[in-house]
């Protein structure tokens, strides 16, 4: 919020140097974030927190500065001269909605002229970011900036019936506000109305009809106090935010209107001419009841961890307007009407401690139990998955959890479709209109962008949540997705990424998460290509993920100019890692022996492996693929697969003859079970 | 004749072998000349043994054997040395300045690097890391934290709402509320995670990351809060940073403080990063407001606590000099790769 340094320091008796004032205000909770010289003064941008509407004006902030710098707040002098008719005979004010309007003060100044305000006033307004218009309008703005009381000035002639009522609007009632907008009101909205209808949105903005202008001769001033919730709801409904509504929403001082209206009337008479009518109208159905609070110096000392004397407490509370009555250790005080944020003893503690200074509180490390902390199981899981991906050579990206609805639509019916989409009611953009149900679209977009930047080799992953709606309940679940494109290897021996590259990475990651025992089966459409795609399925048939070359349709949709291989895993299916247990190292050497099987292409490796493992005797410790050949020299549709078996006896070394015999038996069984030949 | 001749041959052999050096062909020629089966000098010397008178044969024979041993040994050594030298030549034909095979290098995103660094500091101080949903309800995200409906404090956190009435959490505090409703003190947790606010510019993103902390126990004071945060900030940045606590306001803490560190770029002298103030605002904190304890079922007369929070992305931006927050979430691997 902008303040005029000159106006601020003028409120203090024995004002400190600007540097000190700024430093002290910052130290007690009003951060002076920016200081800019302007005219003969400075503009101060001060952070005033939401809970301190009383400091959103120069008097209020000056009060804080006075206590913080040890000087005094200069009393405010209003030089008001009344003459002419009694105000009460000219105009009438009524509050019909006391739940929305707490107090309504009025004065009238007759015989004003339209004139610009003096230079000093214009400069002050400009420093605070307010545009000068005319003396009358400028005075109302000035009083707001100085005291924090929003004021409104009506052209007396244009208020029909010369009567203003604070009431709730009638459903559908219309009002054109000062900004020219025509607004349709609801019965929950408080308004100020004359005989014909609404002339102002209470606490927010006045109406155009009764606005003062160059022809105005008689000014009717309103200084009122409106309830925060009603003003806030109305402002939200109408999408409005004004200097007035800002203050009423946070809580304006109900004792301020009389002083404010007097000051405004006096200033208008001085600067725009005219006479202030006799008497102030003050409708105050629920006078402010002061709140009494009590605290002890020992209590705040204990709370702060610092010895604070009762005299210090009294000095601070006195300067802040709490009228403290000390009695030994105890201090009884009255919460001033402008402090809407002070309700309990704890609030008083804060007032004392912040003025004493947080710096004064000694820093003491708490004595905690020495048991080390633990990461929650969910964090351990996602970090295991992330570490596995990084160890596998993938680069992490983080993308938004929301995505364009048309793109998220692609998830419907695809593998790992979790359920119905979860849309945002108020997204920042249409492209962020729904929560993502899969990590793949965001990742493919990232790959596309990288390719468009000229990258050829990309290997990325993201770990994050997918979201969906389960009936009316929102759900979320952790996923890991990865994508590869381009080549791997070195300048001497580079190879394009292929299905086996992807599978190797996915299996490496899945082993470390760990994902449960699984099988790879043809599938994965429409994300991945039918010819190069798989579903990863757990023992119970649950789909754990999918992997493969991105299908032509998907590649097209995401504008991918080269082959991209991608996978996504549902981490909700992850299991706990098995505790490690040592297996005794074998004492006798193994013997490796190969068998080369010639078979139809249609025989999947998993099947061959399964049969071979079952057919191999108990001496076979391990079985692995070492070669695969098809093409020249083989009939079409035939493949040669070489398996290497590792034979080992637990108690002695095997002889070559024994191994040969085992191999012969194996070949016989394979021929029998699968009808294959051997090479 | 006799042993003299053997000595002479020995001298010539050693001289010829040395002259052959490391040249394998030259060494071979020396071998043929001296130990060659048909025409080597050793053959002649052996033949000459039969011509000698009997009393000279013993000495001569011994000397000859010695010479044979010497010749064999030295030739072997020379041959081996020549072979090794030839291999070495062949090997150094590799241009060792050529790039090696590049193995894929994975990398963690800077926001996670920072998260784990901060987690590690607090784990060592005895705090546990908690987790919770990103989609929240109003009570956990606002009301439990002393932010009733229609409260202006809700303006400071523009909220995304979802179909069905839920919202995207605007801070990780709801996880603290959940923990406090499930568990009685002592509570020592930190909560990292994604949070969401309707805001987007150089320093604001609709999705970002926070990490918040909570300590609730008997006798927790503001002095404990100060020391904990000072210790943390020195461990995170450097033990030379200055730390400043300023009174502020959050609905869920009372008293509240904003915490600044001396600018890590200019050391406090004033620069563009710290808007010439010399300080960078890094944390919000405060003593937990007793109203929050009332909402979550913790006895405010028996327990006190403190809470704090900071933006993880912001710390990453400071530590790593990244200017635009939104750049962290475009999915650009080149950003992450810089931190491999």
Structure description:
The complex is a heterodimer of chains A (679) and B (340). The termini of chain A are far apart. In chain A, a hairpin with a 5-residue loop joins strand 29 and strand 30 (528-538). In chain A, helix 6 packs antiparallel against helix 9 and helix 11 (310-319) crosses helix 12. By secondary structure, chain A is α+β, with helices and mostly antiparallel strands. Chain A is built from 19 helices and 36 strands. By secondary structure, chain B is α+β, with helices and mostly antiparallel strands. Chain B is rod-shaped. In chain B, 42% of the residues are buried. Classes of the chains: A alpha+beta (679), B alpha+beta (340).
Largest sheet descriptor of chain B: 7 strands, mixed
Instruction: Give the termini separation of chain A.
Output: 87 Å
Could you spell the SSE succession of chain B in H and E letters? HHHHHEEHEHEEHEEEHEHH
Query: Quick one: overall form of chain A?
Result: elongated
Helical percent range of chain B? 40-55%
How much helical structure, as a percent, in the residues of chain A? 25-40%
User: Major β-sheet of chain A, in short?
Assistant: 7 strands, mixed
* Rg of chain A, nearest Å: 40 Å
Low-pLDDT ranges of chain A: none
The assigned structural class of chain A equals alpha+beta
Q: What's the average pLDDT of chain A?
A: 94
Low-confidence parts of chain B: none
Strand order of the largest sheet of chain B: 1-4-5-9-8-7-6
Helix count of chain A, per DSSP? 19
Number of strands of chain A: 36
- Look at the structure and give the mean pLDDT of chain B: 91
